[in-house]
């Protein structure tokens, strides 16, 4: 829990009372590799902080899994669409490694917003970071070649090739595993 609080205060400083309130609201979750944190059709009622491990968000499309994001240590993760709208998720969230997460419910977050405006600001900053990553992903997919997307991935998350199956990386980049293998051979 201390790791979470230390990380959170890098986004925005919190008073001792706000930190104490937050500490009482998170639940520790330990999951194994390949466990699902969320399956499509379920309503996502929690925001998670990934203390240790790796996971991915993916869609099922015509029998194929299309990976659209990864989460690693110190990331806040959730199905933002479902979490925000209270509608069933259209994505799945699966653990790629055994992981330790801290969960907080949507209702608890709303209560904390009403009591501590500094927590509301903190979550807004986390949402902004999420949006920036989403926009970067869109720009990469629309305007960069497969090789440029792979180079960018290695620059931003160099550990990814050691921790994520190549099939998931290829799917994330929007290319086949064969194309990924050809690109990787150039490095």
Description:
The chain is α+β, with helices and mostly antiparallel strands. Helix content is 50%, strand content 24%. The chain is built from nine helices and eight strands. A four-stranded antiparallel beta sheet has the order 1-8-3-6. A four-stranded antiparallel beta sheet has the order 2-7-4-5. Helix 4 (106-115) crosses helix 5 (117-143). The longest helix has 27 residues, at 117-143. The protein is globular. The relative contact order is 0.16. The model has no long low-confidence stretch (mean pLDDT 92).
| Widest beta sheet: strand line-up | 1-8-3-6
User: In one word, what is the shape?
Assistant: globular
Radius of gyration: 17 Å
Which structural class is indicated by helix and strand composition? alpha+beta
Q: Can you give the mean pLDDT?
A: 92
Cα distance spanning the termini? 39 Å
Identify low-pLDDT runs: none
**Helical stretch tally:** 9
Estimate percent helicity.
40-55%
Largest sheet: 4 strands, antiparallel
Order of helices and strands: HHEEEEEEHEEHHHHHH
Q: What is the total tally of β strands? A: 8
- Portion in strands: 15-25%
Helix/strand layout:
Elements: H1 2-11, H2 16-23, E1 27-31, E2 36-38, E3 46-52, E4 55-61, E5 64-71, E6 75-77, H3 80-85, E7 92-95, E8 99-105, H4 106-115, H5 117-143, H6 146-156, H7 160-163, H8 166-173, H9 177-185
Antiparallel strand pairs: 1-8, 2-7, 3-6, 3-8, 4-5, 4-7
Helix pairs in contact: 4-5
Characteristics:
4-stranded antiparallel β-sheet; alpha+beta; 187 residues
């Amino acid at each position: 829990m201390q790791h979470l609080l230390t990380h959170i205060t890098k986004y925005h400083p919190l008073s001792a009372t706000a930190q104490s309130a937050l500490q009482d609201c998170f639940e520790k979750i330990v999951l194994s590799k390949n466990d699902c944190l969320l399956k499509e059709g379920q309503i996502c009622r929690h925001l998670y902080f990934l203390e240790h491990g790796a996971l991915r968000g993916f869609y099922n499309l015509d029998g194929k899994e299309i990976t659209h994001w990864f989460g690693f240590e110190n990331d806040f993760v959730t199905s933002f669409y479902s979490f925000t709208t209270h509608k069933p998720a259209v994505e799945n969230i699966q653990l790629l490694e055994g992981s330790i997460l801290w969960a907080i419910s949507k209702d608890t977050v709303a209560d904390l917003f009403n009591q501590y405006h500094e927590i509301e600001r903190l979550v807004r900053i986390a949402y902004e970071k999420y949006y920036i990553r989403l926009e970067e992903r869109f720009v990469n997919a629309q305007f960069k070649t497969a090789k440029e997307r792979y180079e960018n991935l290695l620059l931003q998350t160099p550990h990814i090739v050691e921790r994520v199956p190549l099939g998931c990386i290829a799917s994330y980049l929007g290319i086949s595993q064969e194309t990924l293998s050809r690109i990787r051979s150039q490095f």
